[in-house]
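Protein modeling request. Please complete all fields; requests missing the sequence field cannot be processed.
Requester role: graduate student
Desired output: 3D structure, token encoding
Chains: 1
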Amino acid sequence: MFVPLSTVTFSSLSAELRSDGTAIYSLMRNLGSSLGISVIQTMVTRNTQISHASLVTYVTPFSAAVTAQVDTASQSAMAALDQAIGQQASMIAYDDAFKLMFIATLVVVPMLALIKRPKRETAPDPEAVHVAMD
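Delivered output (134 residues):
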């Protein structure tokens, strides 16, 4: 995904501005990635807790379905049941996160039509090109 994005980003820049464009592009990509990861992680953590609280309302030691499957007098059996509920809650939260990313992708895809085709340029003037040298 990043290679075509980089190609489109730098194709419209003149050769003398590409080094400056690289710095700004890297900064924006890093900021966007950090923000996206933070939002998704917060959403997953929060939705896991919400889903867990919702699921445990249906699983009680007094439910006939639970007592048929689990020894409700055993602490380890109840802990294993809570762990299974936690896993299901995490799965629901990650499913919600992937749905959000899918919707965000669908919203952004039509914006591809707004990208202009770059103009072919001649070879840049060697005096004007900034090149980082070691």
